[in-house]
Design a protein that fits this description.
With about 250 residues, the chain is mostly beta strands. The protein has one domain: Porin (Beta Barrel), CATH 2.40.160. It is built from one helix and ten strands; from the N terminus they run αββββββββββ. Strands 1, 2, 3, 4, 5, 6, 7, 8, 9 and 10 form a ten-stranded antiparallel β-sheet that branches. The protein is rod-shaped. The N and C termini lie far apart (about 90 Å). It is found in: Cell outer membrane. Keywords: Cell outer membrane, Membrane, Signal. Belongs to the Omp25/RopB family.
Amino acid sequence: MKRTLLASTALAFLAVPAFAADLPSSEPAPAPQTYTAPPVFTWTGFYAGVNVGWNQNEMDVRNRGFTGTTGSYNPFSEKKNGFIGGFQVGYNQQFDMFVAGVEADLSYLGNRRARASTGVTNPAGVTGVQGTSRLDWLGTLRARAGVAMDNVFVYGTGGLAFGTPDQRLTLTNAGGTVTHSGTKDDTRFGWTIGAGAEIAVMDNLSFKAEYLYYDLGRNTVRANATAAGPAGTANSARFENNGHIVRAGMNYRF
């Protein structure tokens, strides 16, 4: 009898922990874990920066005719390569993967004066003609639009270009004496188009590479007779102004 009672008591004590384990816990359940996505890079905002690169300035000269005499010469041209450097400011707005914006820049061109010459057939004694052109600075105001892949932005660009070419037309006789001379250096407006890519290495710092073609249109220079030239005679020539730019830049976004 005693053995039966002891066995029942032992079984009761062993069952208590199992029963307690089945009771609901009074402690609150742990909060569910939430996933926070990393911040997505955006190109939206204002920026400013600097650029440096290579420029090729092209001069193309075509005869527009003589006044007070006759004469002719074939078209001639010349190209000059040089340094280009300047600064830019702009604004981007991002719409999902699409980015659109506007950028303005002003650059100094370190190329030398383009100079070329050819022979002239003229009864007034003119035997040679020389054209020279120099462009010291160039500005653009362009739209930029393209696709952003996180911190990489690939774009096309185009818009207004402006600068002040310094152009000269000189005619000489067989002895090398200047018979006609003229200059023009007014501000010209034209267009530019190109493409580029920009990569952000920090939230507010990016680097870009860019190509631009620019065309400042046509400029007519009139060379009037000097003291050594026949009075009342002149020659006019049309200068075409265009070139290429390849450059790299750095932007800081605000």
